[in-house]
């Protein structure tokens, strides 16, 4: 029997400039997703939450998903591949919404490693620069952002611990 611990994020040594991570799975954004996000963040703009307004008073003629939901979703998609073992997100250098996203669109994301450098002040970590692009089901880019992430080096990273015993995990009494 083998116990498999799913990797979550990467260590500094695992990143290579030019590497591309295709994040899986994609996510279809529903009207409920958009409305909940708008209410939680107190963005009550009728473009996102009022179908009549969107049909009669906007250039698209239908509701547009709030951009911060698209960004947050895509950032979240990248976490298992990019920043799951990170110390901190340091900076979002740029964020662009290239096209609108509509209720029912399915979003997919891809991240490319642009740069990596060792920390100048702490030898146990480094900084990785990545760009993430999001596409809808029509292969249209809808969001782009570039960010810097502080990442542990493998030997300095805290050990992954679980709040239960190995015996409990494998069902042994």
Walk me through what this model shows.
The chain has 173 residues and is α+β, with helices and mostly antiparallel strands. It is built from five helices and five strands. It has helices at 31-40, 46-49, 51-57, 67-78, 166-170, and strands spanning 20-28, 86-96, 106-118, 125-135, 141-152. A hairpin with a 6-residue loop joins strand 3 (106-118) and strand 4.
- SS elements, strand count: 5
Helix/strand structural class? alpha+beta
Strand order of the largest sheet: 1-3-4-5-2
Beta fraction: 25-35%
Give the helix proportion (percent range). 10-25%
Task: Tell me, briefly, the overall form.
Answer: globular
Give, in order, the helices and strands. EHHHHEEEEH
- How far apart lie the N and C ends? 16 Å
Report the biggest beta sheet as strand number plus sense, adding barrel if it closes.
Answer: 5 strands, antiparallel
Radius of gyration from the alpha-carbon trace, in angstroms:
20 Å
Our count of helices gives 5
Mean pLDDT: 94
